[in-house]
Amino acid sequence: MPENREKREVLVEVKDLEVTYGSGRKAFKAVNRANFEIYKGETFGLVGGSGSGKTTIGRAIMRILPTSGGEILYKGQKINGKISRQLDQQVIKEIQMIFQDPQSSLNERAKVSYIVGEGLMNVRPDLSAADLARRIACFAKNITPESCKDDISCLVIYFRHPRVLRILTGPPYYKEHDAEFARQANLGEDHVIICGGTTANILERELGGRVKIDLAAMRNAGGLPPSGILPGVGLCTEGILTLSHVCKALEEKQSPVGQPLAARQILERLLTHDRIEFVIGTKVNESHQDPNIPQDLELRRSVFKRMQAALEKNYRKIVTVNYY
Fold it and tell me: Could you say which of 3, 133, 168, 200 has the lowest number of CB atoms within 10 Å?
């Protein structure tokens, strides 16, 4: 038995742990040189009389209480005392506790949405309101997996700074404005979309870097030109064909699921952001004046006007348009 335990991974190790309440003459040592190990996959029971320090040890492992001596190791790293912010966030995310007093963890006046939602937001502050509502509803349904005892409705009102998505399509009317135009792509890779090969060429030239196209994107293009990524800048797609497809999907309230890859990527970003900023170059692309191009292939400015109307009416997005 000891040999098997030695081969197993130790998750939590407590060495000569001491926890003291108060100081000076009023100091009381609630935990005195406690030692134990908790192995991966093991259910560990800490048994003792009332007031023996069981809850105090748990609170010390959770970093709720400071320790006055000894060490607490989690996955081999010391987690009591002063530790890095990154390690502190890892402990908060990976170690949780149900306290001895049910009133401190289960509030009879609080609904499941609050109890579950608060914990989710502590470890996943990036969750959208829709994702949070979905997870809470699934949690409630799984309380009685055989059948739902009542209707489950979950409304989440999530107060946060608005997520901004910026879509650039060029070229600007005056070439000397290219640098200023390119600087608009400064929100981060997840918040910028570059539409059109000419636009991508401008950003490559002004910001450096090259557009990278994944082979998987080519296989899953679904009839539209494949998308790519300009590293550190944003998603790159073809221009008018892809935008026309996205515009139609927005007007008809189509789901991103099942759309060609480039259109799906744009739709997903549009739906998960709150404020959409279109940055549109006004120089006419001569290729769009070719009489051989189908009549329903509209110029980008016309497409963006329709997209703006659909986003505002169907999805309650805040939309702004800036022309170059």
Answer: 3
DSSP code string of 18-33:
EEEES-GGG-EEEEEE
Give, for 115, the enclosing helix (H) or strand (E): helix 112-123
149 exposure class (CB count in 10 Å sphere: 0-12, 13-18, 19+): exposed
> Closest Cα partner for 136 from 159, 164, 111, 160?
111
Structure tokens at 47: 């048994």
Check if the beta carbon of residue 220 is closer than 8 Å to that of residue 261: yes
Strands (E), the chain: 10-21, 28-39, 69-74, 77-78, 164-169, 192-195, 228-230, 234-237, 275-280, 318-323
16-31 pLDDT, tens digit per residue, is 999 998 888 888 889 9
- How far is residue 110 from each of residues 104, 128, 137, measured CA to CA in Å? 12, 21, 15
Residue 293, pLDDT > 60, answer: no
Phi and psi torsions of 94, nearest 5°: -100, -15
Tokens of 311: 């986003």
